[in-house]
Here is the input.
Amino acid sequence: MAGSMQKLVVVLGTNASGKSELGIRLANHFGGEVVSADSRQVYRGLDLGAGKITPTQAGTVKHHLIDVADLSEYFTLAQYQRAAYIAIDAISGAGKLPLLVGGTGLYISAIVEGYELVDVPPNDPLRAELECLPLAQLVQRLERCDPVAASRIDQNNPRRLIRAIEVASAGRAHSAAQKRSPRYNCLQLGLTWPLEILQARIEKRLRERLANGMVDEVAGLRSQGVPDIRLEKLGLEYRYVTRYLRGELGTLDDLRLQLATVIRQFGKGQVTWFKRDKRIIWLDPSGNYFQEACDRIREWEGKLPSAP
Here is the structure.
């Protein structure tokens, strides 16, 4: 029964929506801790490009599942789920409120839905073959080997398509087709903005990250021996800054314009993913959405009567 399950607040949203800041404010207000749901923040060395919260921004709020893996590793969804379960259970066990905060839809779904995952190790020869294929062929190949996964996966994300084919090729169904055993009573709060405002927020944040040294961050990773192909696979900022450093994108303004475009496109994909879940309560960004979130949490906890 949902009432007897551990409680978990989920704060999700698009890039540049302000979800990380909202998660920190809510954790401070309710005496909670944050578990990151971001597929790049798990890696050490990905700071500006991955949008990690700085210690100053985090304040006294403890964050989990940030900087837990090396870039030389492939941190699987199953590894993430196990680590997130441990963190959430420890927070609840200490009498605090756990908040799952991020924008990686698959990570959030793995926790909210309780996917029963298989942890298939990477198949490097297969990956090398698949990485040469265009997106349409990856989709077709997944449809042949795991049609259920193909019908549910983000078909515009080559990294996830390749992973699904890899898992299916090992004789196991992809996570999208697995049984689900939810272990938490979740309240999902979503945050995004009207398109024009969101675009302005994306542009502002991108300018700030570039001014604060995002290009230098990627250059430093390359100098440390991180291969370009690894940085390309990380997508968005790391992919395009790597191409800029190879001289493929022209000027810094060219980089900024192209990157802003792909981030906006990525944001649309995030919205598409999240909108499938009708349980998500979308906060009103034009009002006091922090207070709205607080009210929703108190109501959910039974401290306020349900709204008529």
Confidence is low (pLDDT under 50) at residues 304-308.
